[in-house]
Amino acid sequence: MAAQPGSVAQPKTSPSAHVWHALDEDVVLCLLESTRAGLSQEAAARRLAEHGPNELQQAPPIRPLVLLIAQFKSLIVWLLAAAAIVSGLLNEWADCIAILSIVIVNGLIGFYQGFNAERSLAALKRMTAPQARVRREGRSLAIPAAMVVPGDLVEIEAGDLVPADSRVIEAVALKTVEGALTGESEAVEKTRARLEREEVALGDRCNMVFMGTSVATGKGLALVVATGMRTEIGRIADLLSTAAAEDSTPLQRQLHSFSRILVGAALGVVALIFLMGLLRGIPALELFLRSVSLAVAAVPEGLPAVVTVALAVGVQRMAGRRALVRKLHAVETLGATNVICTDKTGTLTVGEMTVRALWTAGTTYEVSGEGYAPEGSIRAAGTAVDAERAGPILELLTTVVGCNGAALAQQDGTWKVIGDPTEGALLTAGAKLGVYSADINRELARVAEIPFDSDRKRMTVLRKRTDGALVALTKGAPDVLLSLCTRVRDAAGVRPLTDEDRRRIVAQNAALARRALRVLAAATRDLDPGCESSSAGAIEQDLIFLGLMGMHDPPRPEAKRAVALARSAGIRIVMITGDHPHTALAVASELGIANAGDMVLSGSELEQLTNDSLSEQVERIAVYARVTAAHKLKIVRAWKHRGGIVAMTGDGVNDAPAIKGADIGIAMGRSGTEVTKEASDMVVTDDNFASIVAAVEEGRGIYDNIKKTMQYLLAGNVGELLLMTACVLLALPLPLLPIQLLWINLVTDGLPALCLATDPIDPMAMKRKPRRREENLTDRAFVGLLIATGLLTAGVALAVYLYSLGRAPLEMARDHAFTVLVYAELLRSFGARSETRSVWEVGLLSNLKLVLIVLASIALTFWAPHNAWLGAFLEVGPMSIHHCLVLLVLGAIPLLVLEGWKLIGRNKMVAK
Q: Could you give the 3-state DSSP secondary structure of residue 713?
């Protein structure tokens, strides 16, 4: 027996200790020490003090200063800062200002990105209901939702947000939209009946309502069993706070690792040369100046800026393909992605229920068009149906539109359903044949309704004709409705329903179900005036069977092509949905996600697997159905444990923890909750899986551009370092001055590098497999080409320098070495665009910016010896045009040799 109101301040046992949906109402009331009159105000106050406010915990505030300092922890940044300080001490203020500008700009960009990334829990908190109606001491009160406590009775109706997790104890046509928790758009019917099993998926707990979900239709009374962080949405908030994303992306980790190697090697060479110089008796000050010059030659000053530009341009390109990137360095992660865990509803599918097939009088009709927009046609045997001669199909659609409680509305150019999504789909189907609610309401006045419930599995609306006669319009489950029918409507009219008719209808129902369609039936009956008050049993009998309607959430037309493209690129697609397993499998098979031999796992089956067991099987599972937020995060972690670079997509609150825990989290822009967007790295503005695959292609292109840009910049630095080191070892004067080294690194190399960073995507980018998580950006081939290019460039410059030293003053020899090195670097940028294709195959005009930059830089170098101001700035003396042309030809040698190597290497591959 339930306790009296106010007898005890808190429940006898913690609500989290019970499986509320599997308990009788009286047991739940007893455990929570509540009654059908509700709690007393005194008891509610005590419980509020005991359990705390019905709110979600807020994330700790972001400390901007800490975030700003974190942007300057890179080893290359520290070395650049040190080089800037040394340049300032030596009065090389141009060098100092240039280097510090690069460091500061990169730090500010990183700070801006990070500051906007950590607001997930605050957004989640805004989803909860601000007000709630509770029953206390037998009276209905409106209170702030934060004041709701376990044991409260909450009153809910259409349009309300559910304030707390509650057990339903009264329900009248009650349906809630739980897409934020389950990911499914269809409204869920609620009932007061106890469920027999304890292990029931969240989406199947039809006697529970949950915080943050909304009431679509009907009204009800529910007993609060959990508040705040103990609710399902609270558990998601807790998961969200612990599902920390990776500290860095694969590229960031590789750049950090490589920078350590680069800086260590450079400092080692500088220290070795400094010691050798001391042993040879070279003055310490002169050695220090030489060491600073070597450090400037070794450090790629422009690399941080170029990588940032490559990522920023990639962001702009992705925006043009409907993918908005929220975190800059996450762009390149897409290029390494080898697993995409995607939601079904709204991503692979349209996200809106759509009638696809109709059957009546022995004829099957196909319905075209997607979603709730009243656009499309109804065809039989390929021929469009004429509304004026539609016959049985017109009566079928008139019945389901008339037996309907939803409405369609156009908002910002998009059609939305107000009410139940299934009823909205039926309204859209009717509109495609010119059947509208407004017309029916004028001709058939609505006089009564027998609402749908899970026991009856049907709904009936009574309408009155202009002559006063009544007509009952009924829709519901085919098997239930067929048992109530005694007649059938066919092309000739109404006739008795035979056993053969019943068998044909059952067979057609099964055929539609095999297409993964949800099937409804419709029937009608004429009634005598005055039957409005008759019982449901008296009205819903002797019905005339009209036909069947098959509907589903259809796959997007472009999704199948996108899945095929992703699979050809070596990316595994995994569907994770809250839908039923058979529906999920049907959609996955249609799209090419699930093939023969692939496994389908339900949430209850997943619950039984340990993390290690799941990791062992995860590569064989293509579809997960009826899963929760915790399950999704578990799947993501299992793939990451197997070495996968995982992208997770979603739109509901239940997706947010997995989105945050994935390598790249992708939220839906249209249907996505604010929580999901705030937890994500990228937002797809059109909710389309094809846009995700397009973003992956962009990510691969960005990674390729960063790699080729690094190769180009570092090869130039290696060439400079080898040239300078060789001269030190040979006891020769330095061939390049500090301002010349900085000019080469920031202008001669830097401007072409910016053009390489924005190079068009390689057409073969989606024809190769994703790179492995452990694959190093600077692998053996990268380092080999780096050293070979550096040796070539340094060799040409050293040969010119040595030749000029024997025949001209030191200043002219330096001018020649500097000029030929500039030409070699500029021309080599054309060959750096591809490791396998020649300059002509890639096409010069495909990157017109690079051509213009190189031509302008060559002209500037030509002009420098003939302009007093520019010559003085670069410390270059006068030089004849003949010498400039000869040096230009010599500067082409590295490019020609590298292009020849490409041709030889490709011929070897062809021979193999």
A: helix
Q: Find the Cα–Cα–Cα–Cα dihedral 125, 128, 130, 131, rounded to 10°.
A: -150
Of 642, 663, 687, the last residue of a domain is 687
In angstroms, the CA 197 to CA 712 distance is 64
Which DSSP letter does residue 456 get?
A: T
CATH code of residue 383:
3.40.1110.10
- CATH of residue 177: 2.70.150.10
- Domain end residue (candidates: 655, 687, 719): 687
Domain match, 658 and 628 both: yes
- Taking the C-alpha atoms of residue 425 and residue 185, their distance in angstroms, rounded to an integer, is 12
793 near 778, Cβ under 8 Å? no
Are the CB atoms for 6 and 42 separated by under 8 Å? yes
Alpha-carbon distance of 834 to 708, in angstroms, equals 7
Bridge partner residues of 226 (DSSP): 165
* Residue 804 belongs to some domain of the structure: yes
Nearest to 325 by CA among 231, 249, 238: 249
CA–CA distance, 863 with 884 (Å, rounded to integer): 10
629 and 662 belong to one structural domain: yes
- Burial class from Cβ neighbours inside 10 Å (0-12, 13-18, 19+) for residue 781 reads exposed
Tokens representing 647 are 């992208």
Amino acid at 424: G
Asked if residue 571 lies in contact with residue 592, where contact means CB atoms within 8 angstroms, the answer is: no
Q: Are both 860 and 819 inside the same structural domain?
A: yes
Alpha-carbon Rg of the chain, whole angstroms? 36
Range of the domain at 467: 354-552
In a domain, 150, yes or no: yes
SS3 call for 547:
strand
Q: Are residues 406 and 260 in the same domain?
A: no
How deeply is 611 buried, as exposed, middle or buried, from its count of CB atoms within 10 A (0-12, 13-18, 19+)?
Answer: exposed
Q: How many domains does the chain have?
A: 4
The token pair at 778 is 């600077």
pLDDT along the chain (912 residues), means of 10: 36 54 90 91 93 77 66 63 68 66 64 49 47 88 90 88 92 82 75 86 87 84 92 79 54 66 72 76 67 64 67 78 76 84 83 90 90 90 75 92 90 80 92 92 91 81 90 94 95 92 94 86 91 84 96 85 91 86 83 88 89 92 86 91 90 78 85 72 85 88 86 88 84 80 77 87 85 74 89 95 91 93 94 88 89 93 89 86 92 93 74 59
Same structural domain for residues 329 and 411? no
Q: Is 208 helix (H, G, I), strand (E, B) or coil?
A: strand
Pairing of strands 518-527, 543-552: antiparallel
Partners of 577 in the β-ladder: 625
Catalytic residues: 343
* Predicted model pTM: 0.65
Q: Are residues 594 and 476 in the same domain?
A: no
Residue 768 belongs to a domain: no
- Residues 407, 471 within the same domain: yes
Question: Is 547 within a domain?
Answer: yes
Cross-strand partners of 518: 551
Within 13 Å of residue 455, how many CA atoms lie on the same side as its CB? 8
User: Judging by DSSP bridges, how do beta strands 572-577 and 363-367 pair with one another?
Assistant: unpaired
518 Cβ contact list (under 8 Å, min separation 6): 353, 422, 550, 551, 552
Per-residue CA distances from 550 to 364, 375, 397, 515, 546 (Å): 11, 18, 13, 9, 14
Q: Which residues contact 740 (CB under 8 A, 6 or more apart)?
A: 814, 818, 874, 875, 876
Q: Cβ(496)–Cβ(576) under 8 Å?
A: no
B/e letters for 398-423, b = 16+ CB within 10 Å, e = fewer, are bbbbbbbbbebeeeeeebebebbbbb
What's the CA gap between 774 and 522, in Å, rounded?
Answer: 59
Angle at 154 between CA 151 and CA 160, to 5 degrees: 145
CATH code of 260's domain: 1.20.1110.10
Let me know whether 856 and 904 are in one domain: yes
